[in-house]
Design the sequence.
């Protein structure tokens, strides 16, 4: 996870019930539990990350997000997190709609492919490698990349309302020219 824990945690109300989709090693859920009194569940497919999350005392379910979230009822969580996981999901529109259905608030973050340094690398004829996108084109786990502006269009297309949006630059929130200057994008979405 490249977005600092505190940037995302500040968006999660104290005492929330949280579902973390693609929770990785459980670091975010453990942080929310320890600093904000939250409870919740992580979903992860990677067995090693699943074990790391469980070792942190995080309740975690091994599950492939491509299967959807039909096991959860509408608004069964206060917050659903998708931190750096949306670019790895084939059925992006469905995953986004399900995030908004299952949670009263969806918080998503991903590397902003329109950052100026990425644009510069493309101008030199190379696909970018950055701290937020650390893989070469031939070994990346990402199925796709996204930009700040593209996500706003996707949310509208899915009938979701963007409650808050900002970029992250040097570990801090920024709202100034996030499409160009932010290395990561963060969006809070709700049903239309």
Sequence:
């Amino acid at each position: 996870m490249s977005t600092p824990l505190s940037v995302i945690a500040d968006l999660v109300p104290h005492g929330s019930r949280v579902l973390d989709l693609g929770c990785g090693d459980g670091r975010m859920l453990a942080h929310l539990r320890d600093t904000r009194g939250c409870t919740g569940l992580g979903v992860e497919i990677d067995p090693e990350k699943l074990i790391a999350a469980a070792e942190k005392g995080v309740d975690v379910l091994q599950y492939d997000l491509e299967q959807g979230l039909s096991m959860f009822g509408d608004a069964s969580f206060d917050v659903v997190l998708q931190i750096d996981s949306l670019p790895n999901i084939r059925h992006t529109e469905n995953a986004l709609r399900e995030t908004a259905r299952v949670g009263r608030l969806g918080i998503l973050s991903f590397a902003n492919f329109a950052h100026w340094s990425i644009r510069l690398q493309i101008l030199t004829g190379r696909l970018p490698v950055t701290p937020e996108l650390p893989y070469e084109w031939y070994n990346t786990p990402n199925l796709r990349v996204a930009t700040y502006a593209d996500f706003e269009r996707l949310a509208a297309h899915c009938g979701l309302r963007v409650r808050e949006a900002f970029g992250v630059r040097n570990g801090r929130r920024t709202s100034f020219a996030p499409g160009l200057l932010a290395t990561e994008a963060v969006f809070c979405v709700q049903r239309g």
User: Anything to note?
Assistant: The chain has a mean pLDDT of 91. The first helix runs from residue 5 to 9. The chain has one domain: 5-191. The domain at 5-191 is CATH 3.40.50.150 (Rossmann fold).
